[in-house]
Design goal:
Length: 465
């Protein structure tokens, strides 16, 4: 807290540069009604073409029931991490072995052929190392980018997001691209039976043991949500209307605000971050919330306060704090985890960024900025979830959450719990459940459900039904 008059004016001045991050409950409620409207536009076939939130039907109609069995390969391509997994399911027991591989930035910004060849190489290596050659392996692919699905294993990429921009993939069926790359790279008998988004995988994974779970949320590199919707509300549905009359909708709500409807809450820092991103004007809600961007927003504020002479008065202009992308979102978690007056983690971060001659007062301000930026992110994500909870109107709801931002940030869970409580209709109960290995296990579960349904169909055919 400021003690001297000089400090008081310093804090007042700082406040004038950051007040845009402090939004009232009324503002979050306004965001909710805009989001609700945009989601309705996405669901209706007449308005979907120009809607920002695409509300993609996924072809996932049933949640797992615990009877899934067998050995599956799963891939998880999320934006930061790429993993190959071997998942063994037997009723409620699950055994997972996995390996994480690196996707170099050159490949993220290269051609589609290079990307899928690289993925196929990793799978080939994984199957060799795990002695799986010669086995028949159904594969579930968690591919966490907006796709228009034409079947459980047909998904056309509608646009790249996060850090990816590979040439020649938009509009293509990513399962076919992977299938062709696999044919070249391995002799293993792999069949791609399902492709899902990570939010959907997360929902599947938690729903496996919890019947109240109908919403999945990702707070990782990106931000996205999915939920179970009744078919009668899905104008875009082209499949059959057989039981169960429901389908999981992948909202792709990260694109909320791309038509300008969130401009009234975006700050100068949000605008600058967007201008220098690889996809300006796109994914504006995601850019205020997710792990790929929060650190950079904090960095931009710190840079501005420094330029105004309100922070780091002894700093060298050449230091790394002034480099774009240099302030990682994990620093925000580390700084906010500093509970004592010694600011040990904050100092460690500042040292890593080569900031010199900082004071304890500077550390306090840095922590304050981190809390402002992360609270707004958590509250915006909460507004999204509260909109879905109100829409579904179920008396009890579990929300499955995955992603490193939610997992590791010290306050995200509590901030969200309190804000959602404030925003949902009275009487609706909810809980936020961290999903364990949502995207990996989820992809295998979707593959398993698909195989189970396929077996049931085959049996009906064999019996002439
Ligand atoms: P993916 O999106 O590929 O599934 P993750 O869920 O691991 O991967 O999310 C990666 C994102 O999480 C990155 O943008 C990174 O900045 C952020 N992140 C990683 N560690 C932390 C942390 N300790 N606190 C907050 N954010 C983190
Ligand atoms: Mg993930």
């Amino acid at each position: 807290m400021p003690t001297s008059p000089e400090q008081l004016t310093r804090y007042e001045k700082i406040e004038s540069f950051v007040k845009g991050f402090k939004l009232s409950s009324l503002t979050y409620k306004r965001v909710m009604s805009l989001l609700d409207e945009e989601m309705k536009n996405g669901l209706r076939s007449q308005t979907n073409t120009y809607a920002d939130i695409k509300m993609f039907p996924t072809f996932v109609r049933s949640l797992p029931n615990g009877s899934e069995k067998g050995q599956f390969l799963a891939l998880d391509l999320g934006g930061t991490n790429f993993r190959v997994l071997l998942v063994k399911l037997d009723g409620n027991s699950i055994d997972i072995q996995s390996k994480t591989y690196l996707i170099p930035q050159k490949i993220m910004l290269g051609t589609g052929a290079q990307l899928f060849d690289h993925i196929a190489d990793c799978i080939a290596k994984f199957t060799r190392d795990h002695g799986l050659l010669g086995e028949r392996l159904p594969l579930g692919f968690t591919f966490s980018f907006p796709c228009k699905q034409e079947g459980l294993n047909i998904a056309r990429l509608s646009k790249w997001t996060k850090g990816f921009r590979c040439e020649g993939v938009v509009g293509q069926d990513i399962c076919r691209l992977l299938h062709e790359a696999l044919k070249k790279k391995t002799s293993a008998e792999i069949e791609i039976v399902a492709v899902v988004n990570d939010a959907v995988g997360t929902l599947m994974s938690t729903a496996h043991g919890d019947n109240n779970c109908e919403i999945g949320l990702i707070l990782g590199t990106g931000c996205n949500a999915c939920y179970m919707e009744r078919l009668e509300n899905v104008g875009l549905w082209e499949g059959d209307y057989s039981y169960p009359e429901q389908v999981v909708i992948n909202t792709e709500w990260g694109a909320f605000g791309d038509n300008g409807c969130l401009d009234f809450i975006r700050t100068e820092y949000d605008r600058e971050l967007d201008t220098f991103s690889i996809n300006p004007g796109k994914q504006l809600m995601e850019k205020m919330i997710s792990g790929m961007y929060l650190g950079e927003i904090v960095r931009l504020v710190l840079e501005r306060l420094t330029t105004e002479g309100l922070l780091f008065r002894g700093i060298d202009r050449e230091c790394e704090l002034f480099e774009r992308g240099r302030f990682f979102t994990k620093y925000v978690s580390e700084i906010e985890s500093d509970r004592d007056e010694f600011f040990r983690s904050t100092k460690q971060v500042l040292d890593e960024l080569q900031v010199e001659n900082y004071t304890t007062e500077d550390c306090k301000i840095v922590r304050y900025i981190c809390t402002l930026v992360s609270s707004r992110a958590a509250f915006l994500a909460s507004s999204g979830l509260a909109t879905l909870i109100n829409k579904l109107g179920r008396p009890e709801m579990t929300i499955a959450v995955d992603g490193s931002l939610y997992r590791f940030h010290p306050r995200f869970h509590n901030l969200m719990r309190l804000k959602i409580q404030e925003l949902v209709k009275p009487g609706l109960k909810f809980s936020l459940a961290l999903s364990h290995d949502g995207s990996g296990k989820g992809a295998a579960l979707v593959a398993a459900v698909a195989m189970r349904l396929r077996d049931v169909k085959q049996e009906l055919c064999d019996n002439g039904i």
